[in-house]
Amino acid sequence: MSTPSSLASGPEGPHALRPLLDTVLDALSEGARVRGGPLPSGGPEAVAVRLRDAIGDVLPDQGDPDALHDIVRALAEGAADPSDPFCAAHLHCPPLALATAADLAASALNPSLDSWDQAPGASELEGLVTEALAAEVFGTAASRSTPPPKAPAAPNATAAPSAPSALITTGGTESNQLALLLAREAHGADVRLVHGANAHHSLPRAAWLLGLPEPVVVPAPAGALDPAALGEALTSCAAQRLRRGSAQPGALVVAATAGTTDAGLIDPLPEIAALCAAHGARLHVDAAYGGALLFSDRYRDRLTGLDAADTVTLDLHKLGWQPVAAGLLAVRDPHDLAVLHHRADYLNAEDDTEAGLPDLLGRSLRTSRRPDVLKIAVTLKALGRTGLGRLVEQVCDHAREFAALVHDHPGFELYAPPTISTVLFRPAHTGDAAVAAVRRRLLTEGRAVLGRARIDGRLWLKATLLNPHTRPDDLAALLKLVEGNTPR
Ligand SMILES: *Cc1c(COP(=O)(O)O)cnc(C)c1O
C-alpha cells in the first residue's frame, strides 16, 4: 500500500515503490504511444499548451491522487526520445534500462556523498569506481584482456599513493571547470587557456568564471586542432609575455578535444602532448564524447596520447548510456586534488578525520551529492569492458553505414567519413537556408531530431548516432525523410 507520504527507503520502501513503479511504467508507455514519434509534433507553442492543459494547477489546495500518472504521462508525451532512431541531434544518449534501474536505487537509498555518515557504502563504491576509471584513462589498469585475480576489495589501501584519481561530476561542463580550477591552483591565477576553435563552449566559459586571462583561440578550420597552429600560438604566447618584461614565460593550459561536439573529431593528441611537453604547458583533454572509445579494442588506439594529459574529462551520459548525470574528471597526479580540501566541522571535523572517518568534502565543489556512481558501477560490472566496447563499436558502425548511404546518394554531400558516431551531411546543390529549414521542419512536425553544425563556413546537418540497436533500415529511412522534406 502506498500513500503520497510513504517513504522510499526503509523496510516498507519496496512495498510503497512497487505499485508506484507500475503507475510510472504505464504512464511512460501511454505517453510514448500518444506522442507516436521521436518528439512531440507542433513545435514549442503546441507542446507547451498540451503540457499546461495536462498539468492544470501546479500547486492545488488539495492533492491530486493521479499526479504521478498524469505528470509522467504528460512528460513522456512531450519528450524527445533518444532511443528513437530518428532522434539523433545531440550527445543525448538513450539510457540503459539497467543503469536507469540502478538510478532508482540511488534515489531510494539517497546517500549523499558529502560526508561518510550519509554514505558509508556509496563513498567506498565511489572510491573503487573512480580509481578503476582513472586507471583506464591513464593506461595503468591492471589488465585489459585478462581479468585481474580476485583480491579482497581494498584498493584505497593497496593503490600507490600517486595512482591516478577521478572525481564524479555532473558532466563535461563541471569537469572542464574543475580541470581549469586545478590548473589555476597549480600554476597561478594568470594561467592562460589555449584552446581550439573546435573546443566545447564550457571551456572559455570556465576561464571566464575562474577569472583567468582571455583565452587564446587556435583556429580549427577543418574541425580539429592543427598542431602547427597550436605550436605557433604557444610560441607567440611566450614571446608576448617576455616582451612585457616578465621573467617567466607564463603558464599555459592547453585544452584539446577527443570527440568534438560538432563533428566527433579527435584532435591529434600525441602531437599536442609533445608540444605541451616542449613548451612546459599543462594539458587537459576534453574526452567527454570520445573517452568511451577506451572500452573498445577496435577504437582504443584513436585515443593514443590521452595518457599524457594532466586531466581528462569523460562523460558516461554520452557514449556510456547512462541517465544524466554521469561525468568524470580523471586526474593523473592525485596531489593536484589537494587544493579541493575544505573543512566544515559538521561534515569532516578534524578529530573525526583523525579518528579514521573518510573525508569526502574534497571530492567535489558540491555539498549534497547524488551517488551517480551507482549506475556507473552497475553498468561497468554488468557489461564489462567487452560489452561496453561492443556498444561503442555498434554506434560507430552505424555512423559508417549512414555515411556510406549519404556518400552513395547523388542528392547528398558527406562532410567526411566519421571518426566516432557523428555524421555531418547536407542536401547537395542547396544553400544553408535549406539546411536550416529542413531541420526545423522535421523538428516542428515531430518527425526527426537532427542537429546542425557550422564547419568550413557552411551549415551541415548532424546525425549523432548513439542508439546501439538502430537498424540499417532506420538509417535509410532517416535519409529518405530528409530528402523528402528539403525545400527546393
Ligand atoms: C557534451 C560536451 C561537454 C559538456 O558536457 P555536459 O555533460 O553537457 O556538461 C563538454 N565537452 C564536450 C566535448 C562535449 O561533447
How would you describe the overall organization of this protein?
With 488 residues, the chain is of the alpha/beta class. The chain folds into three domains: 9-78, no CATH class; 110-382, 3-Layer(aba) Sandwich (Aspartate Aminotransferase, domain 2), CATH 3.40.640.10; 385-484, Aspartate Aminotransferase, domain 1, CATH 3.90.1150. The chain has 15 helices and twelve strands. It has helices at 13-35, 43-55, 67-77, 97-109, 120-137, 155-158, 172-187, 202-209, 227-243, 269-279, 345-348, 350-354, 373-408, 432-444, 472-485; strands spanning 87-88, 165-169, 192-196, 216-218, 252-257, 282-287, 311-315, 327-331, 412-414, 422-427, 449-455, 458-464. The strands form two sheets. Strands 2-8-7-6-5-3-4 form a seven-stranded mixed sheet, with helices on both faces. Helix 8 (202-209) links the parallel strand 3 (192-196) and strand 4. It is globular and about 70 Å long. The termini are far apart. Mean pLDDT is 94; it is low at 151-155. The chain binds pyridoxal-5'-phosphate. Pyridoxal-5'-phosphate (PLP) binds next to helix 7.
- Largest sheet: number of strands, sense, barrel closure: 7 strands, mixed
Radius of gyration: 24 Å
Examine the secondary-structure arrangement and name the CATH architecture of the largest domain: 3-Layer(aba) Sandwich
Strand coverage percent: 5-15%
Please give the CATH class of the largest domain. Alpha Beta
Number of helices: 15
CATH topology of the largest domain: Aspartate Aminotransferase, domain 2
| Number of DSSP E strands | 12
What would the average pLDDT be, to the nearest integer? Answer: 94
Distance between the termini: 60 Å
Shape, per Cα inertia axes = globular
Order of helices and strands: HHHEHHHEHEHEHEHEEEHHHEEHEEH
The CATH homologous superfamily of the largest domain: Type I PLP-dependent aspartate aminotransferase-like (Major domain)
Classify the secondary structure makeup into a structural class: alpha/beta
Give the names of the bound compounds.
Answer: pyridoxal-5'-phosphate
List the domain count as a whole number.
Answer: 3
The low-pLDDT segments are 151-155
Strand order of the largest sheet: 2-8-7-6-5-3-4
